[in-house]
């Protein structure tokens, strides 16, 4: 829990730094908009850096007006996309943004054509965004309709809407290119982005959209969480599921269409998916995912656009995505909740504990067969080796672990002996093992010769309550000592004979 | 004739359509299994990965020779499937999300590579989207005296490979698509089938990339198979249908690309885009008109059942009216009022039942014929037996059972009525005290 808080704080700090930088920028940037010449902004799709010779300090302190705009716009976009993306991820609709952003293209092209036909400037941004929003909404509606009217599954519905709408968009773009006003190059920026030439007005719009999404996400935090966590339950509680879903999709539409022209189509999908997926490695709490995803989104946008500004010929959209991919890989590896290393470590610890438990029981049982009252007998290593199929390295490592936990003592003549604590623990384990064996024999009708292995698998995870129930079920055995083994014990004596256990 | 004013030149348009058909059918064949395995979006992800593959191959080999480019793109395509699987499996990330992470990241890598090498590569971003199918007849190969566009030759080879794969491994593909665990039990390597499929998807995407662009591959991988899926329940039929639908989409798409913009005052547009739109149009037709699962078929079935139920209700009403007085009739207005229905519906029901010889009408006054009495008897018997059963056996309140029985009576056949009769110990009266009629035809 503490670790989660640390991570959350870190993510928040990253987000806060980004936000502070952004607000400071907002003040310094938006005021002189009219004073600064905007005509000579580098307006290329490929996002070349300002110059081959880099003044790192100049970039990092954001002295360039253009860099400030780009950093401000993309950071806010990353923040908003991360927050919205966390909900779509938890709703298991991560690729909705994919279908949606493709579905905006015909709207953009059609808006351009219609505006042109009506005699106004087709490249007027609000018109294009309106077109994008309308066809995005139609696309989402088509996905829902396909889901409802046919037996096709979600993935097919997404793929159909994505490809058919995009195909229509491409066909319409073919017409746009022939349109009277000549160049329609601006529209292609919706596909590839034009991060490097974001205008202050673009950044402002992105900021407003991001804040709007944040506000909605905060206000409806509980409802959206419930929707993602268990939609049926939410419906049973009387929440308007359809409306909530529509709100969520609306947020995706808004953040997507505004992000499209900033970072382009494919990279917009990345901003919606990657930070949220990365956040999932750090926490199990839905609020946590949202916070961390927002933080990671803002941080990767900030770093990506700075890198792109500082180094020549690195398109900022792609750099933002690559930074967020790097953060994803980092999270996947060292994430504190579901990170691969973390889970691997947990697994190893669990396996180690199981080996130690096996060792304790083996020593105990060998001593038990040797005679009553000899629980603290020294057992030679080679005899232990024959009891279970473990390699001598594994056994040695296990003994070392058990020794560290002061459960066994290593004797100078090469044997192992249980300590006081180890003896108690071994007794408890053997008891659990045998209770389960007895249960299997009496209640599950499993042959005594076969219960050992089955009990082996389950003895490590028996809860005290289960033990108590087993005791009640098997009635008689309420003494603290383990019952006698219901089958012959492997003792690993030199001739490998099996001494029959005493009858219960 | 709509297409009459088109100047179709078979040397050019014929080849364009041929290339489109080849690409569409090659993709659709494989797409069937993607749609069935709920992996449609993997086709999208793999086809996006073509871009970084091409760029990387170019940077490594330094040539625009097509073989290394092809190999590079296919490798990255397979890598997309592998990485998606890994992230899904080891990272416990939702499948869609892991796909999103992988293909967007690879795409970003591709963009960076292209920009770094931009001075040397003429990889037009527009070409990625809609390809240059219109240009395909210009770049030809001559094989054994027969001249064909290069793309057509390549795509034919790909189509042949896919076709062979689908035919040879049809059984394995079917079983591993529907039930991977069962496939493993009966000795089919589902994992190997999966990656073989992914490899072919990548090969198809790369081969089609240049000619028809990214988007048509995605459309043809998903839309024709999805359309076929709505039309049949048999996999073999579905595969065949998807190929036919892909072919139609390609032909209609090209003609549409030439014809439709002309009506709007433009010249022709991108064929690939229109092919995707055509396949979408066919899907919409299938959603509406599919014989069994179509929206209209379902609606009609519902209407028919509702009408049938209503007609039975008319019989029941007339039977109950005549229960005490055998000469009693009901007028049309009375029927309308009791059934709370429209004059048109009641009229329809009366007409149908008159044609079946169950109702006779004299001066707008309706009564049951002998046949009608028989039919109604079974219905009312079912109703009252159910009421009795619900009170007697299911312990329901007598006031609340009428609606339940009203619903059940229409789906209760003779055998079930006998069973109910048995269960309720052959009682003679329902909970409201009304007599339960005997089975028609049985002795009174």
UniProtKB/TrEMBL annotation, chain A:
<dbReference type="Pfam" id="PF00950">
    <property type="entry name" value="ABC-3"/>
</dbReference>
<keyword id="KW-0472">Membrane</keyword>
<feature type="transmembrane region" description="Helical">
    <location>
        <begin position="317"/>
        <end position="340"/>
    </location>
</feature>
<feature type="region of interest" description="Disordered">
    <location>
        <begin position="477"/>
        <end position="504"/>
    </location>
</feature>
<dbReference type="InterPro" id="IPR036388">
    <property type="entry name" value="WH-like_DNA-bd_sf"/>
</dbReference>
<protein>
    <submittedName>
        <fullName>Manganese transport system membrane protein MntB</fullName>
    </submittedName>
</protein>
<dbReference type="Pfam" id="PF02742">
    <property type="entry name" value="Fe_dep_repr_C"/>
</dbReference>
<keyword id="KW-1003">Cell membrane</keyword>
<feature type="transmembrane region" description="Helical">
    <location>
        <begin position="158"/>
        <end position="176"/>
    </location>
</feature>
<feature type="domain" description="Iron dependent repressor metal binding and dimerisation">
    <location>
        <begin position="419"/>
        <end position="478"/>
    </location>
</feature>
<feature type="transmembrane region" description="Helical">
    <location>
        <begin position="102"/>
        <end position="119"/>
    </location>
</feature>
<keyword id="KW-0732">Signal</keyword>
<dbReference type="InterPro" id="IPR022689">
    <property type="entry name" value="Iron_dep_repressor"/>
</dbReference>
<keyword id="KW-0812">Transmembrane</keyword>
<dbReference type="GO" id="GO:0055085">
    <property type="term" value="P:transmembrane transport"/>
</dbReference>
<feature type="transmembrane region" description="Helical">
    <location>
        <begin position="248"/>
        <end position="277"/>
    </location>
</feature>
<dbReference type="GO" id="GO:0003700">
    <property type="term" value="F:DNA-binding transcription factor activity"/>
</dbReference>
<dbReference type="InterPro" id="IPR036421">
    <property type="entry name" value="Fe_dep_repressor_sf"/>
</dbReference>
<comment type="similarity">
    <text>Belongs to the ABC-3 integral membrane protein family.</text>
</comment>
<dbReference type="GO" id="GO:0010043">
    <property type="term" value="P:response to zinc ion"/>
</dbReference>
<dbReference type="InterPro" id="IPR001626">
    <property type="entry name" value="ABC_TroCD"/>
</dbReference>
<feature type="transmembrane region" description="Helical">
    <location>
        <begin position="289"/>
        <end position="311"/>
    </location>
</feature>
TrEMBL record, chain B:
<dbReference type="InterPro" id="IPR037294">
    <property type="entry name" value="ABC_BtuC-like"/>
</dbReference>
<dbReference type="GO" id="GO:0010043">
    <property type="term" value="P:response to zinc ion"/>
</dbReference>
<feature type="transmembrane region" description="Helical">
    <location>
        <begin position="15"/>
        <end position="35"/>
    </location>
</feature>
<keyword id="KW-0813">Transport</keyword>
<feature type="transmembrane region" description="Helical">
    <location>
        <begin position="67"/>
        <end position="87"/>
    </location>
</feature>
<dbReference type="InterPro" id="IPR022689">
    <property type="entry name" value="Iron_dep_repressor"/>
</dbReference>
<feature type="transmembrane region" description="Helical">
    <location>
        <begin position="238"/>
        <end position="266"/>
    </location>
</feature>
<dbReference type="Pfam" id="PF00950">
    <property type="entry name" value="ABC-3"/>
</dbReference>
<feature type="transmembrane region" description="Helical">
    <location>
        <begin position="182"/>
        <end position="205"/>
    </location>
</feature>
<dbReference type="GO" id="GO:0046914">
    <property type="term" value="F:transition metal ion binding"/>
</dbReference>
<keyword id="KW-1133">Transmembrane helix</keyword>
<protein>
    <submittedName>
        <fullName>Manganese transport system membrane protein MntB</fullName>
    </submittedName>
</protein>
<feature type="transmembrane region" description="Helical">
    <location>
        <begin position="211"/>
        <end position="231"/>
    </location>
</feature>
<feature type="domain" description="Iron dependent repressor metal binding and dimerisation">
    <location>
        <begin position="369"/>
        <end position="438"/>
    </location>
</feature>
<keyword id="KW-1003">Cell membrane</keyword>
<dbReference type="GO" id="GO:0043190">
    <property type="term" value="C:ATP-binding cassette (ABC) transporter complex"/>
</dbReference>
<keyword id="KW-0812">Transmembrane</keyword>
<dbReference type="InterPro" id="IPR001367">
    <property type="entry name" value="Fe_dep_repressor"/>
</dbReference>
<dbReference type="GO" id="GO:0003700">
    <property type="term" value="F:DNA-binding transcription factor activity"/>
</dbReference>
<feature type="region of interest" description="Disordered">
    <location>
        <begin position="422"/>
        <end position="444"/>
    </location>
</feature>
<dbReference type="InterPro" id="IPR036421">
    <property type="entry name" value="Fe_dep_repressor_sf"/>
</dbReference>
<feature type="transmembrane region" description="Helical">
    <location>
        <begin position="272"/>
        <end position="291"/>
    </location>
</feature>
């Amino acid at each position: 829990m503490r670790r989660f808080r640390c991570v959350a704080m870190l993510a928040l700090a990253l987000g806060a730094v980004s936000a502070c930088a952004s607000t400071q920028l907002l003040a310094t940037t938006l005021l002189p908009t009219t004073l600064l010449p905007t005509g000579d902004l580098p307006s290329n799709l490929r996002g070349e850096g300002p110059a081959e010779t880099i003044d790192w300090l100049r970039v990092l302190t954001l002295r360039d007006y253009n860099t400030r705009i780009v950093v401000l716009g993309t950071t806010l976009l990353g923040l908003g996309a991360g927050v919205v993306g966390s909900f779509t991820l938890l709703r298991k609709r991560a690729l909705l943004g994919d279908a949606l952003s493709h579905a905006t293209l015909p709207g953009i092209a059609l808006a351009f054509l219609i505006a042109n036909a009506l005699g106004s400037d087709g490249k007027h941004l609000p018109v294009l965004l309106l077109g994008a929003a309308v066809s995005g909404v139609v696309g989402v509606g088509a996905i829902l309709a396909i889901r409802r009217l046919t037996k096709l599954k979600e993935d097919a519905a997404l793929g159909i809407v994505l490809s058919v709408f995009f195909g229509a968009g491409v066909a319409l773009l073919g017409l746009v290119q022939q349109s009277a006003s000549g160049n329609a190059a601006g529209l292609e920026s919706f596909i590839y982005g034009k991060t490097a030439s974001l205008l202050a007005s673009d950044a402002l719009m992105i900021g407003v959209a991001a804040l709007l999404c944040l506000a909605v996400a905060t206000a409806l935090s509980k409802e959206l969480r419930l929707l993602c966590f268990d939609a049926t339950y939410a419906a049973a509680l009387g929440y308007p599921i359809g409306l909530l879903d529509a709100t969520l999709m609306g947020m995706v539409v808004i953040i997507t269409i505004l992000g499209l022209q900033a970072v382009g189509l494919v990279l917009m999908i990345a901003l919606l998916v990657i930070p949220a997926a990365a956040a999932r490695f750090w926490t199990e709490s839905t609020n946590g995912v949202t916070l961390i995803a927002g933080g990671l989104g803002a941080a990767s946008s900030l770093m990506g656009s700075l890198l792109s500004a500082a180094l020549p010929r690195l398109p900022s959209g792609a750099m933002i995505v690559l930074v967020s991919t790097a953060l994803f890989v980092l999270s996947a590896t060292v994430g504190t909740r579901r990170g691969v290393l973390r889970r691997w470590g947990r697994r190893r610890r669990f396996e180690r504990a199981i080996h130690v438990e096996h060792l304790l029981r083996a020593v105990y049982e060998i001593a038990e067969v040797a005679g009553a009252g000899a629980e603290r007998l020294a057992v030679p290593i080679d005899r232990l080796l024959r009891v279970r199929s473990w390699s001598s390295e594994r056994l040695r490592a296990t003994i070392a672990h058990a020794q560290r936990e002061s459960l066994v003592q290593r004797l100078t003549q090469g044997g192992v002996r249980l300590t006081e604590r180890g003896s108690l623990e071994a007794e408890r384990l053997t008891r659990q093992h045998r209770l389960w064996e007895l249960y299997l024999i009496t209640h599950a009708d499993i042959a005594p010769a076969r219960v050992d292995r089955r009990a082996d698998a389950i003895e490590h995870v028996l809860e005290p309550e289960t033990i108590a129930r087993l005791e009640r079920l098997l009635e008689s055995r309420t003494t603290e000592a383990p019952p006698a083994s219901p089958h012959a014990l492997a003792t690993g004596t030199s001739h490998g004979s099996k001494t029959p256990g005493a009858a219960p | 004739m709509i297409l009459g004013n088109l100047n179709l030149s078979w040397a050019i348009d014929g080849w364009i359509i041929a290339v489109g058909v080849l690409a569409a059918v090659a993709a659709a064949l494989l797409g069937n299994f993607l749609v069935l395995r709920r992996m449609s979006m993997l086709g999208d992800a793999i086809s996006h990965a073509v871009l970084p593959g091409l760029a990387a191959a170019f940077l490594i080999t330094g040539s625009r020779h097509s073989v290394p480019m092809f190999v590079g793109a296919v490798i990255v395509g397979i890598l997309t499937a592998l990485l998606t699987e890994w992230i899904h499996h080891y990272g416990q990330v939702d499948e869609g999300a892991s796909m999103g992470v992988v293909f967007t990241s690879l795409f970003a890598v591709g963009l960076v590579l292209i920009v770094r090498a931009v001075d040397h590569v003429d990889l037009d971003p527009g070409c990625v989207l809609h390809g240059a199918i219109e240009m395909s007849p210009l770049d030809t190969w001559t094989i054994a005296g027969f001249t064909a566009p290069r793309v057509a030759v390549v795509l034919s080879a790909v189509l042949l490979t896919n076709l062979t794969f689908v035919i040879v491994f049809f059984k394995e593909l079917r079983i591993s698509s529907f039930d991977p665990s069962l496939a493993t039990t009966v000795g089919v390597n589902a994992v190997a089938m999966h990656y073989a499929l992914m490899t072919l998807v990548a090969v198809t995407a790369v081969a089609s990339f240049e000619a028809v662009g990214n988007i048509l591959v995605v459309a043809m991988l998903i839309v024709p198979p999805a359309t076929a899926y709505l039309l049949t329940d048999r996999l073999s039929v579905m595969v065949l249908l998807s190929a036919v639908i892909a072919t139609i989409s390609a032909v209609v798409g090209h003609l549409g690309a030439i014809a439709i913009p002309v009506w709007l005052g433009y010249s022709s547009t991108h064929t690939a885009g229109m092919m995707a739109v055509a396949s979408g149009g066919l899907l919409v037709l299938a959603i509406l008109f599919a014989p069994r699962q179509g929206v209209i078929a379902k609606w009609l079935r519902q209407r028919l059942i509702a009408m049938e139920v209503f007609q039975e209700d008319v019989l029941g009403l007339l039977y109950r009216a005549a229960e005490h007085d055998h000469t009693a009739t009901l007028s049309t207005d009375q029927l309308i009022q009791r059934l709370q229905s429209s004059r048109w519906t009641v009229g329809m029901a009366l007409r149908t039942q008159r044609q079946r010889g169950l109702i006779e009408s004299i001066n707008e006054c309706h009564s049951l014929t002998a046949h009608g009495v028989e039919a109604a008897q079974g219905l009312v018997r079912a109703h009252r037996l159910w009421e009795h059963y619900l009170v007697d056996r299911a312990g329901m309140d007598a006031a609340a059972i009428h609606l339940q029985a009203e619903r059940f009576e229409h789906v209760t056949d003779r055998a079930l009525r006998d069973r109910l009769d048995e269960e309720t110990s052959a009682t003679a009266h329902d909970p409201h005290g009304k007599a339960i009629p005997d089975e028609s035809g049985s002795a009174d």
